[in-house]
Every structure is written in C-alpha cells, then in structure tokens.
User: What shape does this take?
Amino acid sequence: AMSLKLYKAGKSTVEIVKERNLAASIVEGHLTDFIKTGELQVASFVDEEKLNTISEVVLANSGKTFGEIKSLLNDEISYSEIRAVVNHMLWLKENKTVEEKV
Assistant: This one.
C-alpha cells in the first residue's frame, strides 16, 4: 500500500525504489498488483501497442508461465509489463467488461 500511496502522490517507480530501498521488480510487482483491483490503470505501465501484443500472446497460450510467455515476446517487453497486462485481463474478467474494453 505504501508503494501505491507514493505512486499516486506523483512519485516515479525509480523514486519509489530509492525511497523504499527495494528492488525495482518488487516495487513494479506491488504496483501492477493494483491493476487487478482497479486502483491503477494498465495504461500507467504499458502502451496500447504492447497491451495488444501481450494480450494476444497470453490468450493464445493459456496456462503458460510468465517465463514461457516472455520467451514468445520480443526482448523489449518486461516481466512487469506482462504482469500488468495479465492483471488487467483479470480485472476485465472480474468486472465482466471484456467486450467493451478489448
């Protein structure tokens, strides 16, 4: 919750990492978890083109691990971006707005 509070206060991920003395992957993990709850928007972490690319690969490879998904994508896409998109897809499913948003 502290990472979310700092992020909403306008701090960048890099600033939060320094302030909290945590690894970037941990802070990004904290923040992307809030996409699943709807407290943060996926657009804060992933542009529309990457969102579409990652979504397509995830949907076509249901049940695969993040590592397997990552290997199917180009190197410019990070694990945090994959996690952000997967959490966004879970939020959409939970809120039953897939047809409206995708």
Notes: Helices lie at 2-8, 13-20, 24-36, 48-60, 66-72, 79-95, 98-101. The CA atoms of residues 36 and 87 lie 5 Å apart.
